[in-house]
Every structure is written in structure tokens, then in C-alpha cells.
TrEMBL record, chain B:
One of its GO terms (cellular component) is plasma membrane. This is Transport permease protein. GO terms for molecular function: ABC-type transporter activity. Residues 64-291 form the ABC transmembrane type-2 domain. Keywords: Cell inner membrane, Cell membrane, Membrane, Transmembrane, Transmembrane helix, Transport. Belongs to the ABC-2 integral membrane protein family. It comes from the Bacteria. The keyword Membrane applies. The chain crosses the membrane at residues 64-85, 97-118, 139-164, 170-195, 207-226, 267-289. It is a multi-pass membrane protein. GO terms for biological process: lipopolysaccharide transport.
Amino acid sequence: MADNERVPTVIADDAHIIYRVLQGPGAGNSPLASFKRIATRTKNSNIREVHAVKGVSFVAYRGEAIGLIGTNGSGKSTLLRAVAGLLPVSRGGIYAAGQPSLLGVNAALMNELPGDQNVELGCLAMGMSPAEVKAKKDEIIEFSGINEKGDFSSLPMRTYSSGMSARLRFSIAAAKQHDVLLIDEALATGDASFRKRSEARVRELRAQAGTVFLVSHSEQSIRDTCERCIWLEAGSIRADGPTADVMKEYEAFSRR
Amino acid sequence: MPETAVASADAGLSLKELARRHGLSYSGRLPSLPEYTRQLWEYRHFIRAHAGAKITSSLGNTKLGAVWQVLTPVINAAVYYVIFGLVLNTHKSMDNFISYLCIGVFVFQFTQSSVQIGMNSITGNIGMIRALHFPRATLPISAALVEIRNFMVALIVLFGIVLVDGEPLTFQWLLVAPILLLQSIFNIGLIMFMARYVTKMSDVRQLVPFIMRFWLYGSAVLYPVTQFESVLKGWMLQVVEANPMLVFIELYRHALLEGTTLANVPAVLWIQAVAWSVVVGILGFVYFWRGEKGYGRG
């Protein structure tokens, strides 16, 4: 194998993802209607299928940072979850090197626990040994910067502002070396100085021969961190190429 | 749509072949059962930390904090004492009826709250499941550990009640340890089953309170086990007396009380208890493992 050969880390091969959504009570959900449905054995009208990703194929290589763009509800987050193996694909396949890790803003830890215990728990959940956790704990808290305005790491997470908890979550996930790191809107939260620090950390992770996927609505952070962009629209790929080109197309599309 | 350039050596390969060539694994592949068990063992520190965190956070908002762990079983026993000991004054013939009753109530409560906590162990942690990668069975196991810990505190209260009620302290009390182990394995199996079952069929949540009530009445908790013999005969009696909760409760009574009439001879009860915990423990674990990759769907 030649040195200059690019090593694929994530391959999506015609991946389809279908959600089955059980709708809450609404029209036609009275007890009588439900009985009628069961008695006549008609299909439950409350279950709707949402075809969120429709046949997506791409190859991602080691050392790449790929931005995923698209309007709200275009399937970006769903695709990331499937790459992370957290959501099963309905058809096709997604292949990945090692275990991709998803880093999102809605990664709930335990709100009743103080920040430093959440750091320990999060690190253990990522598969670190207790010794590693002990060594990395202070570094993580310092990186998150939650202690800049007093001793917040010993206060329960529920007292944190949304920006602070997002920063802590990012810091926990970024503490581990990932083969494939999937970031879902996490860089958008936090103030300017944290954003700068986290973007530097993403570059560092990439330099350590990983692949980074970034979902963001902030054009700037995509431009700053990714050289390749995939544009998803309504579950299909509209464009895949260098960031500048794809961004231009996307901007023209969204201005319409 | 610009295609991604594929390196020369890989040219012409289909995506699937390319993935195989570079040793990429299929996302969402179910690990084998031994592999899964080994992963679980590697996550033992996480299980312990998660269980500890659950205990701390569940009482975090109360003023008395950890005192509730002792207070809850004491109040529980007091309620039953007032109703059955003072108000109804039932079973005067059995002088240790309060102990008899409390053992049944406490032991049944252990499994009952395990079932309830089991229903939430996946659905209540969905944020964590969607965000991080870890063997999902760590969550029901940590839930079980929380319940085991609570029950061990309750057991100490129970020992006090039994002693105050006039039962002697004997070496037979040591039998509580193996019974506790068997019931815990049984509970873990049950928790794992419930954890997956409610993700597939959330309607069962509405039925569980009734099932548990029915189970309570069928487990000779509130009245002596001998009452079954006077109303049931033959195979029906056999079925009722094979009820795992009845078996566990009878074994605790056998260990703690002197001169109680048991449903069966102790040897039979022990065999039944081992069989139940092995069968339910293994089936629950396998059932849970089969669903491992779908829990993120929520």
C-alpha cells in the first residue's frame, strides 16, 4: 500500500434511514376509534414512517474534516447518529473504522450531579479506565472554562447556563482520542473565546489522524474547520466537494 | 454532483468491497454474546459510578438526604403494623405475624421497585444513549445495583423488626446472603426484560401496576401461605406455589423465623429459587442483548 494512498474511515453505501413515529393523541384517537381499528385490523394510523435519509453514499478519509450542511430537517443529525451506530439503517450500509463518537449539544448527562462528577461519569462511559479519568479530570474542567467565574464544577449541572453545559459536554467528548468524531452543532454554543479553543481542539484531533464530521448552521465555523462539505437536502446529497464550491451553491439555493 | 476521487488502488471497487478492504466494520453490528459480556465487564467502573450517581441524585433535592434510605422502609413497616397489627389484629394464632408480614412486604417491594425502575432504565437515559457509546446493559445493571443497595438498608431495618418481635438470632440468618444473591440475579433478568420490552411496547407500562398487584396477592405476602392449601388442590396448588416471589419470600421466612409452616420443604424451595434466577437471569440478559443496537431509536 502506497504512503500517499488515502485511507477511508467512514463509508456510507446507499444508506436509508426510516423513523417510525408513534404520534401522540390527536384526531381519530378516541377509545372508540382505537377499538374500531383493532377490531377491523386496519393499520395504526398513528404510526407514520419518516424517510429521513434517502440513499446517501460517500467515502470519508483519514485526516479529513467534513462539514454537513443543509436546511433544518434535511437529515444531517440523523445521518450522524447512523454513522455513530446509534441509529440502525433500514437499507444499505454504513461502515466505519473503530467506534465513531457523536458529540452533540443534547447529550444529556446527569443534571442533579455536580460538573466534576459528570466529567468522571462521562469519561467512564466513553470507556476510560478510572486511572485515566483521574489524570484527565482537571484538564477537562480547565478546558471547559466553567471555573472561570468561580467554583462551578462542584455545583449541580442544573444550575449551569446552556452555554456552560454545552462547553462541558464538548470538553468531555474531546478529551478522548477518536478515530471518527462527529460534532453536532456543538461549536456554535459557547462564547467567542471558547469557540476559538474548541476549533483549535478539533484541528488537533484531526492532526492525530482522525476524521471529523461537523454539522453546523454557522457558515463561519464550517469554513474555518472543514475543507470538504456535503450538502444534504430532504435526505439526499445535493453536493459533495470542496467547502468553498459547495457553500457557494448552498448560499445561492438558500437565497432563493 | 462531483464524485469524490478514489485512490488508484481502490479504483473500481464497490463501496462495500472498499469497506471490507480497509477493515471497516458495519455500524450497528451486534457484538456476539461473549464479546458483549466482556465489554460489560470492562465497563464495571462505569456501572458503579452510575449507580452511585443515581443514589446521590435521587435524594439530592430532599432535606434529610440519605436518612430517607432508612426512613422509607421504617415508615413502610409502620403502615403495615398499624393496619394489620393494631387495627385489624389479624391472625392472633400466629404470634410472629408482624415479622411474617414484614418479610413478605419488604422482599416483594424489592422486586416490585426493580420492575418499576427497570421500565425507565432505557427510556429515562435516552439522552445518554444517543450521545455516548457504551454497552446498554450497564444501565439496567446499575439500576439493579441501586435497588439492591436500597434493599440491603431495608434488610437491616427488617432484622431489627424481627428481633423486636421476639425471634431469636440464629446461624440460620446467614442463609439470607445466598437468597439475596439469587433474588438479585432474578431481578436483574426481570429489569433487563422490562427495559427492552417497554421500548417495543410502551402500552405495557399501563398494565404493570395491575400485574404487580395480582402478583402481590398471589405471593402470600399479606396472609399465611397455608391459606392456599385450604382452597386449591393438585396442579393448581403446584402452579401457585412455584411462583418465584412466593419461593423467595418463603426462603427468607425460613431463614429468619422459627417454627413457620412453609409452602414446601426448604430443599424444594432452594431448587426452585436457583432455577428461577438462572432461567430469568439468562433469558433477560439474552433478550436485552438482542435489542442492543436499537435503543437509540427511542
